[in-house]
Amino acid sequence: MIMSTPRADRERLIRSLFDAYIEMYAARDDRLTTRFSDNFSGYTGGGDFLVKDRRAWEEITRHDFSQVPGRIRIEMLDVALQDISDNVVVVTAFFHIHLPIPDHVLSTEVARLVLIFHLEGSDWKIVHSGISIPYHLVQDGEVYPMKGLREQNEALEALVEERTQALHDSESLYRLLTEDTLDVLWKTDRNLCVTYISPADERLRGYKATDVVGHSAFEMFTEEGVESVKHIIQKSQHARQSGALTGFLTFEVQHHCKDGRVLWGEVLSKPELNAEGVIVGYHGITREITERKLLENQVRQLAFFDPLTNLPNRRLLDDRLTQALAASTRSGCYGALMFLDLDNFKPLNDAHGHAVGDLLLIEAANRLTGCVRATDTVARFGGDEYVVLVSELTSDQVKSEEQAHLVAEKIRNKLAEPYSLTVVREGLADSKALHHCTASIGMVVFLGTDADQNDLLRVADAAMYHAKDAGRNSIWFEGASR
Question: Does residue 384 carry a catalytic annotation?
Fold first, then answer.
């Protein structure tokens, strides 16, 4: 059994593991490869393909070390930890990479590293790594664009020397050095009106700079994204007024594309202050993270949802029940918790195998979901057991009990309908298995002010067994059969 580590202790542990990883990477220490999980996957900095084999990643890492054998310097800008579950933590870091060469280009880029740590037994292992080095000069066989950097450096140095006298303001130099980056660099005035945006935005979203400059930065986001950013701005303003906010602000927001697509962007933003400390504008970097968001969603799906039925699992049910109790306390409205166990399920498995049994479990999950509101929760508790959480009934206990019983009766009748299941056997034609399966339902009605989460589950579970003892295909309601 895995024991949960307090959040603060876990974060300190993961941060120390991350710091050790960065130190080994900077020192080109081959022991870094021992940190990877056997189930590892990763994106390379010089490529756009997903590596799904740990040994292949080890070879890439060793090639990286051989290509630049001397120690590199990591200038860390920002690090963020995100708890996905008790055994999954995502670490996102932004930094400059200073290679041991006379380089003036790569060290100005902001590299991003995403590491997903997974608790395997007693050890935290890295199951995914995505390092993004936003530079287009990487050639085949390179991790860093060494040859291209040298050539580009020579060309840039000659160009800068030639044009130094002609460049009278820093904005021209800024554009000269940044317009080839894959990230979107931008600036706004104090009212968030865009004053500059790099050509990468046109490559990313399809909008020309003339379509963006002079317009509000909010026009780049979806409606949901606008509300999210406004909320972030309000929080940052309060934090700044209290002296608690300095440096970069990092957030994720959905962006519009000209062709109708929606993509996720990770934004690093920093205010520009005048001599009096008053904000006169903002500047920052936006990087596309759509694939990373998809991966995070996949990790969340594994952590909080049953893989067979796609229903919430016990961990997510605990969270939903906590929210329901809090909502009940605020509103004064009752809720109901139902514990269900399928009757006559084992004979189906014995007769046709677990694959057909799984089909019945999926069908039962679909029927349960169809019996309740979208705001209610249907969870798979384990095996052939389900839990239904119905929230926000009424403030009258008797009426709430009547409503909950109507829902339970609807569920009982729906689950009692015959199941027609497809039986697949290798080398034989598919056939149909008709199965009759009912449910025993235990139910308790609760009010948040006088309810305990563990007691509710225990009472509903006990009521379900009363329903079994009463003959099955029945509802046992707070200790009284109906």
Answer: yes
